Amino acid sequence: MKKLTMIALFAGFLTISLSSCREKKEEMSDQEELIQEMQDEGADIKVKQDENGDTKIKMETDEKKVKIKTDADGDTKIKVDEKN
User: Cβ–Cβ contacts within 10 Å for residue 39, how many?
Assistant: First the structure.
């Protein structure tokens, strides 16, 4: 009986952990998706953070330049320049 209880608890924990991981992958923001896309394309990525809490991310490939600025309040600005 003790073995059956332990197996049931383990199965429950495994189910919960797998379902929570799946939800996190689906809830990516536009900023995270853009960073992931640029990493996949092999972009040069530079991250700067100043003492005010502002963060600047610059990413560049042969075809595209992306700048993401996030201020201390959490406001985000995204600029995408496509090269022709």
Answer: 11
